[in-house]
Amino acid sequence: SGIAQVAADSGIKTTLIDVDVETARRAVEKIKKTLDDLVARGRWPQRRRDAAMANLSVTDDYSALKGMPLVIESVFEDLQLKQKILAKVQETNPHAIFASNTSTIPMAEISSACPRPEQVVGMHYFSPAPLMPLLEVIQGPKSSPAAVATAVSVGRAMGKTVILVGDGPGFYTSRTFASYVISGFRMAELGLTPWEVDRLALITGFPQGPMHVYGTAGGNVIYHASQFLVSRLPDRVKVPASLLKMFEAGFVGAGKPSFYLDDRKLVPNEDAAEFIIRSEGLPTPTPEEAQDMLLLGMVNEAFWCMSEGVLKDYYSMDLGAVLGIGFPDCWHGPARYVSLKGVKAVKQRLTELSDKFAMPGLRPAPEFDALVACGVDSSLI
Length: 381
Prior knowledge:
Blueprint lengths: L1 H8 L4 E4 L3 H20 L5 H9 L1 E4 L10 E4 L5 H14 L4 E4 L6 H4 L9 E6 L8 E6 L5 H13 L3 E6 L6 H17 L4 H11 L5 H8 L1 H14 L8 H8 L11 E3 L4 E2 L18 H21 L6 H11 L9 H8 L1 H15 L8 H8 L8
Parallel strand pairs: 1-2, 3-4, 4-5, 6-7
Antiparallel strand pairs: 5-6, 8-9
Helix pairs in contact: 1-3, 7-9, 7-10, 7-12, 8-12, 12-14
């Protein structure tokens, strides 16, 4: 409903389609309640609320999609379900651009069985969509220029800052964000308490610590996204044993137990400590090492995305990291961080930490070797 709210508020006629009309109506009621609250608090004028609501309609009939230029799919991360919806949309309206709001599944997989893969593109919004400024548009291997241009134009019409990325598991932002949470769990397994990990993350400049993120974003979401990345990037992504243990025990946050009894006041839930499985034979990171591991985990994953062609420029790298996934804005993004620290120094530090703490996610990306070979050590952006 957040995407529909943003579209309607931007003056776009928007139809919500769901399994039944009542479900779609509940989504509109949720939007109405949100907008009424904004008016009551003086954040929105009544006329803006009325104009947005007038742009919304609901249905459960796919024939209503005939003639619509763009369909944005936003169901949960289930490949077969997304493919089923895509098939129904293209059967009803073969000329529509189909945009999937997926956070992990490549366009190549979603469109693999459809008759018009050139009409398929990704539009990855960040939650909550009305507040988060970034939109990640994913160009699949067969996405047409017209499909990509439509997604970018609509995103900008919605007031979003748009970055265009290539296809691949987790694209840019999701896989880079996953590395942050995985690094947090790994450091807890190396001997830091989960709450010390979060404290060090806040000192480093992150808006939330990785263990806090696990609870607020939802351990279910983190677990399934991590498992998907493991299935596609098995040499580089490993799900920490502690994360798996917490998930299996139902310690997943989002209304269920997690690392904090109170997410706002950050009151620790000491019961969560029993799920941390200590890594034997490895040292505990110093505070300085822990801070570097949190930053460099994201930096390195961003540079892997450059190596693999998921990212096409350093400007998009930094915009996406700061606006979408909480990279400390004091560093202005991974590329700016590397520019300030030096390519050789960052590569050396990654190698040291990867070897010392057995973390494959810190193995330096090939992009660092390419930059060194070209004699580039700074001024990437």
